[in-house]
Amino acid sequence: MTTAPAPATAPTTAPPLLEPPLQRLVMAQLEELPEALTGHTGPPRRVLVAAASKYEATAEIADAVAKVLQERGFEAEAVEIDPSVQVDGFDAFVIGSAVYSGHWLQPARWFVQSHAAVLAARPVWLFSSGPVGDPPMPDEDPVDVTAIAEATGAREHKVFAGRLEHSRLSIAEQALVVALRAPEGDFRDWDAIRGWAGGIADALTATGPTTITGTISLD
Questions:
Q1: Is the pLDDT of residue 196 over 90?
Q2: Is the terminal CB of the chain with fewer CB neighbours within 10 Å at N or C?
């Protein structure tokens, strides 16, 4: 006596409705719907200045950028990046990170990856903080900034000199800066930082919220 084969069971996990690239496209379009329904057609007004900072120096740059934008009439908010930071309701973004061993800090990379669809649909500027000395060294861009700029459609990436205080470093970090002969001091150029922020304000004043540019300047 033969036994009829058991009916095939349905897979427990349904396949994705859309391939990942299409999912990202649809999500980006959905993010734009609430703004479109409000009838907002003027230039961007709300700007999030988000920075990943290890010893506060990069966060202070973000504060300075936000202050310039506020003086120019924008609703700018400076925050240190953590998992609680939300991107909803912002028209434009300035994202920065301290640079260690040639890379952005992990929280900044996570932020870009998590919100890539929203960031790519709005004006974005990037900045890095880290080189020290006179002239500031190293003078290369962070290793991962090209991929970050491409993911966000960033209009510009700017590198600013940073601050180095040996007393605030871990033992391993102190050993590294000694080996590299990195000079101690605050090398941030506040005039350059404020001037860059002013340029962002100029660009946003002339730009509607749906205008997207593919130009990426890597200084």
A1: yes
A2: N
